[in-house]
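Now read this:
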Amino acid sequence: MLPADLGLTATLVGLVGIAALLDLKSRRIPNWLVFSGLGSAIVLRTMAGNGALLQGAVGAAIGLGVGYSLFALGVFGGGDGKLLMAVGACFGGPDPMLGALLAVALAGGVLGLAWAVREGVLLPILLNTGQTMKYLLTFGRAGSLRTAHSPGAMSVPYGVAIAAGSLIWWFWGVPIL
């Protein structure tokens, strides 16, 4: 493993580990943490060469695009979206980032279900999710759009899912493209 790879591993583990703990404790992921992780990934990728830097920029752009879109839809908070950008800079490129996003989504689904069971609201959450899926699949002609700001919406510390999915994909993921 190259020194830049070890550095990226340490950056990712530290970034998502601290983000998950802070999200659990305060339900916030601070900018100082996200931008420190992003800066570290950029510096490490710069040391590895222009190709690595370009891959990091592509990964960060994908993370920012997905994160901003989900924030704009009211699915999760701004800190989660920015965290995806920093994670993307660590992963780089579309192939590893796509795998990481899929792992994060799966971890988020497991976290959401576990949180709903813990709160005793599993059935209402499943019904609301069905209505939201109907809304999205019919382009707003049926169902209803629920966001994190809707009355009775359940909020989960999604930084935990980002951490779990990212680390699972970093250490055990396989190329999917």
Remarks:
- The chain has one domain: 3-172.
- The mean pLDDT is 90.
- The helical segments are 3-26, 31-48, 50-72, 78-91, 94-119, 122-137, 158-172.
- The chain is about 75% helix and 0% strand.
